[in-house]
Amino acid sequence: MSQPNTLQEAAALASDIEQRLNQALIGQQQVVREVLIALIAGGHVLIEGVPGLGKTLLVRSLGKVLELDFNRIQFTPDLMPTDVTGHAMYDQKTEQFRIRRGPAFTQLLLADEINRAPAKTQAALLEVMQERQITIEGKAFSLDEPYMVLATQNPLDQEGTYPLPEAELDRFLFKVMIDYPDHNDETTLVNMVLDGTIRASLDVDSLTPATDGAGLLAMRKLCDSVLIDAEVLDYALRIVRTTRDFSGLSHGASPRASIALARAARVQALVEGRDFVTPDDIQQVARPVLRHRIQLSADAEIEGQTPETVLGRLLEQVEAPRQ
Amino acid sequence: MELEKASARLAPRSPWQAVDLGSQMFRRWAWPTVRIWLAFTLLPFLLTLAATSSFESFWPLVLFWWLKPAWERPLLAWYSHALFAEELTLKELFKRWRHYALPGLMAQLTWRRLSPARSFNTAIWQLEGARGDQVGLRHRILHRAPSNRAGMLTIVLFHIEQFMAYGMMALLYMLIPWQFNLEFSDWFFEQGILQTLVASTCLYLVLCVTEPLYVACGFALYLNKRTWLEGWDLQLGLTRIGKRRRSGTVAAVLLLALLAPVLPEPASAEPTPKHKTNTEQQQVIELLAGEDYMPFETRTSREWKNRDEDASEESSWWEIFWEAFFDSTDDGAERSSKPLNIPDTLIWVVFWALFAAIVLWLLMKVASQIGFSGPIRKRKHAIPTHVAGLDIRHHSLPDDLEQAVNSALEENDIRTALSLLLRVSLATLLREYPVALAAGSTEQHCLRTLQREHGQASGIEVLKQVVNAWVRTAWAHRPVSEGDVRELLAQWQSVRFVEVEHG
């Protein structure tokens, strides 16, 4: 399996992966791009969208194209933390406790409708996401790299849901908004299902791997060599710091957001085929990095503003860097 | 009108005491008046509801609301008789409908519909039967200062109505089982037919109470004003004295009859005229309402509150301003009872200006929400002064670009040369094709916007190459070669040369 050795090879590989994913998930180019950036940057993604837009398909496609293990957990109100991480059970044959590993022991974990489970279960993912390890009965188990959590939530039907705590939200590198495909893309999708090019069950058998986990890790390492100018880095920091004192926001983003913004901008530059970051890269990734890390003020909510509109205003007002 | 039959004490009161009298009247005759309201309005309201649900339109409800002056007329007719010990039956009210409902109704349903003093003015048409110029005259007399507060009464009762109606809806909401999964916001703000019908019914039930109260208070204000102007209390007092004197006279006559042989010839009092003609009465009313006979004298004086007596006598600029302002508006001060002496006209002008501004603002807001741009021309974008921190103002750019670029290249300053070329090309293109740019717009964002909005424009392709070269030089610290800069300059000049030739 091919492993990139230079930034050009990494950019070509990223483009190849993106192309394959777009073949499976039609009409969601922006979503594919953002998920790919998060994956290369080693972050987790929170995907928000109504059911039926291909969230599961995206994760399965990722697993297939990158040859990564994939598990899916449907979060429900009665889901227990041990159902996610695993637990120790007494084996009567051996008369010893045996560790039963939960579905979190994988490489790509799809936490479907994460906000349907209570806070205790959601919190079970905190250690997994941040430390990349799971502790069972006092014993820590490291997870295989690359590791990524893709959590989904439905913006409608909020009855009986548990909003994610700030601490957990902050651990997602991106919050990706998945919307309906446009008319042409939806027509293409339906035609492909009707003429048998793809099956209605949206399987991913037709996809072939572009690389494997090792290739992905190599790309991640190469990203570290993408140049980020001091002025550009300062621009990223100014954007994050402005969120802490901006009209319409009651709560700004943490320093973790600054790190996430710089990391994501580097990958964005790589995917664009550049070995340096421009202010435009910062702007491109600012929305998915920040939209779940800010909190609207009561006034802004009453006026019907959304995180998108406020961030749009903020990005217009923070002066672009100059050389 | 036989004032002595009045079941309420007719005495000059303050407007709010008069409103108190009105509320007392309502409390005393609550059931008869509510019954009259229901008798005259229930059927029309049910028809209104039926029309609303059939046509799925709120206009029938608006019509019912607009006809409120007509619904109030039977109530006023009943109060005006009941106060003088004649309680009309529903049958009589229906029979006399033409007499009390029609005078002035057209005016009240058209240009005077939104008059805040409706409760007061209805009595002028309905009870006095004023017509034509007489209406204006009566309005002027009865609305003279001091204010009768009829407008404030309308505002207060309007709010009470709304609070009670919303309270009733909230109560209903609380009684709806949770299984219906009804959101609070949907219940109050959804424009569905069910919500409209429920809200209308709640408002109608509230009106069953507030309308008889409103009419009673307006009628009491009217009575109070006439008591002030025509001295009804004095008239009643004199009548009582006259009665006492007549009863005293009877006793005296009996006594005199006994003593007649010893007393001289009895004195005979001059008979008091019992009736005056209407004209005379009207003349007396106007005379009493005139400024010379008004029982009020308003004196207005101004002085600064809490002003330090020991302070220097020199006034500050704002004191001078306020004094000048009040002096300029003192023309109506003698007649005004307002503490600031601001003429009524000025207040009305400010009020209507504010009202018009609010209406205009609401219209614009609604228009923008429904995406109606109307005949308003598309705003032309202002030409930015800076793009990504680069100054592109005309005076900051060289007159001769070629010379400036060459001199920078001779000094081996490629960054400056490229920067000059970028600034000039941006300034030129943005002047010709203005686009909306913000402080946060980067060079690439500017390029994308120009490509999106003016993709066919010449020069944009060259700008793209210049931007790419600049981005690499600025952010990757890898300057392009001198030859590349000269090549870009030549391309830019050729594009401009062609444009000038064709332009």
UniProtKB/TrEMBL annotation, chain A:
One of its GO terms (molecular function) is ATP hydrolysis activity. InterPro entries: AAA+_ATPase, ATPase_AAA-3, CbbQ/NirQ/NorQ/GpvN, ChlI/MoxR_AAA_lid, P-loop_NTPase. Keywords: ATP-binding, Nucleotide-binding. This is ATPase AAA. Belongs to the MoxR family. It holds the Pfam family AAA_lid_2. Gene3D superfamilies: Magnesium chelatase subunit I, C-Terminal domain (1.10.8.80), P-loop containing nucleotide triphosphate hydrolases (3.40.50.300). Residues 41-182 form the AAA+ ATPase domain.
UniProtKB/TrEMBL annotation, chain B:
It comes from the Bacteria. Keywords: Membrane, Transmembrane, Transmembrane helix. The chain crosses the membrane at residues 34-55, 150-176, 196-224, 345-363. This is DUF4129 domain-containing protein. It comes from Alcanivorax nanhaiticus.
